[in-house]
Amino acid sequence: MTVISDLLRTRIWRHPKNEDWVLEEDDALLEAQVIDVRLDAINSTVGILIDLRTSLQLAESNTGVLVVDSVTRLQWAAGTTLSGRTAWTVVGSEIRSIGKGVEILLRLHPNCELTVRGVSAVLHAVEVPDLDMIPDLLSDTDDEIQRMTANWESTGQVSRTTTLSGAGT
Hints:
By secondary structure, the chain is mostly beta strands. The chain has one domain. It is 4% helix and 44% strand. It has one helix and ten strands, in the order βββββββββαβ. The protein has one helix at residues 142-148; strands at residues 2-3, 33-40, 45-51, 63-69, 73-78, 88-98, 101-109, 112-118, 120-127, 155-163. A ten-stranded antiparallel β-sheet has the order 1-10-9-4-3-2-6-7-8-5, with no helix packed on it. β2 (33-40) and β3 (45-51) form a beta hairpin. The chain is globular and about 45 Å long.
């Protein structure tokens, strides 16, 4: 079992590129939910923790960890939300090679864009045990939501690691 936060410290160039996964198609992350974004400023790494249980295309694992290395841009542009909790659902995703790197654009509902640009990126598909229920952010308590959602200290089995376009160039 792997602690999810450890995936942020694994050098991306060690992972092979899997050509058969659909992640690089536009909108491959539709209906997945962004749970958390972590910046490791010392190592110029960004990690995006994604709940894949609601994803339309990537259902092989319940959690995704998207890691971008040598980050040159991180932008979160969101409108004001009316409640303290928000399910940031992916309504559009693009992964593009740019020069010698990669740019990831996630359009999220409600009214948000998350952009990360770096030299390389990978997506780890992780099966975290005991995530049977999807939390209701309006009615569940904070404790219930934490039990039903992966976090950076969750442990799980990595089922696939895919290097994204631009990585290693």
